[in-house]
Amino acid sequence: MSNSKYCILNGHLISVYEPAVAFSNRAFRYGDALFETIRVCNNKLLFLKDHVMRLKLGMTVLRYNVPAEFLTENIQTLIIQLLKHNAHAPNARIRLTVFRNEGGYYSPETNDISFLIESEELPTTFELNQKGLWVDLYGDMKKPINKLSNLKTANALFYVMAGLAKQSMKLDECLLINENGNICETISSNIFVVKNGTLYTPPLNEGCLAGVMRKQIMALATAHKILVFESIVTDYSFNNADEVFLTNAIQGVQWVGQYKQKYYTNNTAQLFIDKLNKLTQ
Predict the structure, then answer these.
(1) Dihedral sign of CA atoms 70, 159, 214, 229 in order
(2) Which of 22, 53, 74, 185 has the greatest number of beta carbons closer than 10 A?
């Protein structure tokens, strides 16, 4: 948050230098938190309703008490207030974190929550990466498939370990493998494989994050009569694909240039980044 002066804690604007989070905070102690990263493009808060819906679903799974005022409109008002005070416009990244209030050890003493909103200025709208990403498998650990798999939680050590492997292998991104031995996602994105103009993406029961951008790309594909299937993705899928691209809420679409000895084109990725940018106008 190098260019931020303010954040919002439980609806109140405070300085980022104010010591507002206690040592006993459960997000700090146990990773007992959920978060959303939301994109602002051309002063538009993109797909906020979908972000709030996913957040509330996660809160239900974690048995958080969802406050009655935790509505899309109220969150939007707070985000706009924060963007104004931080002078972060027209393009920014928002992080909305929800955490269980302090008390207890592994077993919580309360299910009431607090929330924190942060903002960070970004230079542009969605832009397709000029150089294709170089990716390979992260094989040290498998991602488990359970009721937490689709949630964006603050308990992220699995992704941190994959990030360390990515650095040591000098890759742009790592492909994550689930407990069934299939490719389910990357460290920060969902995966789409393109073959003969048709899109394939791992289904949620393969343990991937229920990505908000994944949802938008699938809707855009359907709207433009591009076939899209949720199906298992493997090493074979990557070796036989014409294209592979990654999606997340902040970068939109990024194309993969190389996987092992296989190289890809980026026509479909370019098509979708153009469609996304039209939504921001």
Answers:
(1) negative
(2) 185
State yes or no: pLDDT of 1 exceeds 80. no
pLDDT one-digit tens code per residue, 166-182: 999 999 999 999 999 99
**C-alpha–C-alpha distance, residues 264 and 166, integer Å:** 20
Domain co-membership, 107 together with 138: no
Helix (H) or strand (E) holding 82: helix 72-86
Mark which of 93, 121, 149 sits at the end of a domain: 121
The SS3 assignment for 27 reads helix
Q: What is the mean pLDDT of residues 219-241?
A: 98
Q: With beta carbons less than 8 A apart as the criterion, state whether 159 and 173 touch.
A: no
Q: What is the pLDDT of residue 18?
A: 85
- Measured CA to CA, the distance from residue 202 to residue 217 in angstroms comes to 13
145 and 117 co-located in one domain: no
